[in-house]
């Protein structure tokens, strides 16, 4: 990855990590011109947010408060990892899930 690619896509990549709405905004920001660095991080962030919301909805029916706390801590760790990678200009996938996010969200181009 070139330094120019990183600089051009850094803002879009960072916006993607701020809530699921930020991911949707980042998708539109990356429509023209397309940036591979931003696309990578949009997919990662969108996957983190979508997974968190899906699991939170599922856990809301169980009534187990401690499971929600564990889910939130896991979300914060994954979010922090991805956000720091975007800040530092790295294209490092989120552990265990990052490769799936890159495959599943190919509609983000």
End-to-end separation: 17 Å
Q: Strand-and-helix sequence, N→C?
A: HHHHH
Overall pLDDT: 88
Contiguous helical run count:
5
Query: Quaternary status of these chains?
Result: single chain
**Largest sheet, described in full?**
none
Number of strands: 0
Radius of gyration equals 14 Å
Which percent bin holds the helix content?
over 70%
Strand content: under 5%
Shape: elongated
| Low-confidence spans | none
SS-derived structural category? mainly alpha
Features:
mainly alpha; single chain
Outline of the structure:
With 109 residues, the chain is mostly helical. It has 5 helices and no strands. The protein is elongated, with a radius of gyration of 14 Å.
Describe the structure.
The chain is an all-alpha fold and 109 residues long. It is built from 5 helices and no strands. Helix 1 runs antiparallel to helix 2 (19-29) and helix 2 runs antiparallel to helix 3 (36-60). It is elongated, with a radius of gyration of 14 Å. The model has no long low-confidence stretch (mean pLDDT 88).
SSE blueprint:
Layout lengths: L2 H14 L2 H11 L6 H25 L4 H24 L9 H7 L5
């Amino acid at each position: 990855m070139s330094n120019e690619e990183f600089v051009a896509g850094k803002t879009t990549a960072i916006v993607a990590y701020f809530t699921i709405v930020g991911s949707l905004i980042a998708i539109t920001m990356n429509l023209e011109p397309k940036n591979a660095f931003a696309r990578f991080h949009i997919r990662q962030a969108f996957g983190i947010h979508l997974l968190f919301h899906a699991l939170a909805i599922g856990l809301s029916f169980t009534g187990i408060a401690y499971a929600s706390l564990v889910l939130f801590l896991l979300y914060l760790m994954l979010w922090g990892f991805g956000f720091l990678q975007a800040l530092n200009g790295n294209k490092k996938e989120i552990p265990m899930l990052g490769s799936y996010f890159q495959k599943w969200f190919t509609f983000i181009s």
